[in-house]
Design brief:
Layout: H1 2-27, H2 32-41, H3 59-78, H4 82-87, H5 89-115, H6 118-129, H7 133-143, H8 151-177, H9 182-205, H10 207-214, H11 219-239, H12 244-256, H13 261-285, H14 289-294, H15 296-320, H16 325-335, H17 340-351, H18 359-385, H19 387-391
């Protein structure tokens, strides 16, 4: 009976995604906010509160959400080969440092003003610093920006952020757990970077291996081999403390050096889109709108202060790539989007309730982070879709 119920819930989820996706298409809007709202409408906090059966955050939905991140970042890697990454390393570093300095710094100040303690300030800084690789990648693909010049600083800064977050999460998790085990955090960071180094070697030297792996006349075996390698390495990365998004990105870069890039994009596009929808639905599913309302004041402060900061840092990140004002503005608009990593940090904060963090503080940070992601994910995708309207506001240069 449990399996039957679980299958029914998954069916309800996909039916809801199909309906809101159709609605978004008719309105010519990004489907991402619609997917998130569908998750909120069907979650335990909304339907369950009035005694109706709701969709639970079950194992399938959780793993499906992870797969959505994996395939979105895999496609990102297909567009960003190792030669391009190395050639852009100086500009990536410059744009990434601007992004880190502005947004992490603003987060620390806001967190200190709101809570008056260093650990809550550090958590808030992480929440507002990191943009959503998954949501931005999906929007780049939907809007056709992936082949445009503005994609280079966007992808470069996202990679920079993901690497910074790998270190940040190791440190902040140790601090929130209590005792501040610096040795454990250092070991976690060391293992994470060793795994990333291994992935880089695979990307640099594994082209021939990947060519042979994909050399099959069977479309079935082709898909299974590509998915097998990608999901296995993403799962292994997550197991050793590295973001599955970073691993999937590097695997995509490894495949980008083969002659099968177009075949991969054609064969896996539908899988990517299905699980991406599940990921956005999951964001809504774990969002309790009633808890978010309680932290509305904190959320309003975070959005008001950090959205302009991210827009500004993204704009100047685009300028480091010698982009014009219009394309630099697109970079800033896209980078305002927050998502999966901010939710992970919110969960970390909740584990410290009653220990390293006062219960009320932990709950407020969690609720504020969830509400912040909800607002910023919708705001970021909307700004990207309406970028032409903002571009017209830019002063005309002679």
């Amino acid at each position: 009976m449990a399996a039957e119920t679980a299958l029914l819930e998954v069916g309800v989820m996909f039916a809801a995604l199909g309906i809101v996706g159709f609605l978004a298409g008719r309105l010519d809007l990004s489907p991402i906010p619609f997917y998130i709202l569908a998750g909120i409408a069907l979650n335990q906090s909304v339907l369950g509160a009035v005694g109706l059966p709701a969709v639970s955050n079950g194992e399938f939905v959780g793993i499906g959400a992870e797969l959505g991140i994996v395939f979105l970042l895999f496609f990102l890697g297909l567009e960003f080969n190792l030669d391009r990454l190395l050639a852009d390393r100086r500009r990536i570093g410059t744009a990434g440092v601007i992004d880190l300095g502005v947004n992490f710094g603003v987060g620390l100040v806001v967190g200190w003003v709101l809570f008056g303690r260093p650990l809550p300030a550090l958590l808030i800084a992480g929440v507002v610093y990191v943009s959503s690789s998954a949501i931005i990648t999906k929007s780049l693909l939907d809007l056709g920006w992936i082949a445009n010049p503005e994609s280079s600083p966007l992808l470069g800064v996202l990679v920079f952020e993901d690497l910074v977050v790998a270190v940040y999460l190791a440190v902040v998790t140790a601090l929130v757990a209590g005792g501040g085990d610096v040795g454990a955090a250092a070991r976690t960071i060391g293992v994470a970077f060793a795994f990333i180094a291994l992935l880089l070697v695979l990307v640099a030297a594994g082209t021939a291996l990947f060519e042979r792996l994909l050399d099959t006349p069977s479309s079935e075996y082709f898909i299974l081999r590509a998915v097998g390698v990608t999901v296995f390495l993403a799962g292994a990365a997550l197991a050793v403390g590295v973001s599955e998004a970073v691993a999937a990105f590097f695997v995509g870069m490894a495949f980008s050096s083969t002659e099968y890039v177009h075949d991969l994009e054609t064969a896996l596009a539908s899988i990517r889109d299905v699980f991406a929808a599940v990921f956005f639905f999951w964001i809504g599913l774990v969002t309790d709108p009633f808890v978010v309302v309680e932290a509305a004041g904190v959320i309003a402060v975070l959005v008001t202060v950090t959205a302009p900061a991210k827009l500004l840092s993204g704009f100047y990140g685009g300028r480091t790539y010698a982009l014009d004002d219009r394309r630099s503005l697109r970079v800033g608009l896209a980078m305002t989007t927050r998502g999966e990593f901010s939710l992970i940090i919110a969960a970390v904060a909740l584990t410290g309730a009653g220990g390293t963090l006062p219960v009320e503080t932990a709950r407020t940070i969690y609720a504020a982070a969830v509400g912040y992601v909800l607002v910023m994910s919708a705001l970021g995708t909307t700004l990207m879709g309406a970028s032409d309207r903002f571009e017209r506001l830019l002063p005309t240069r002679a």
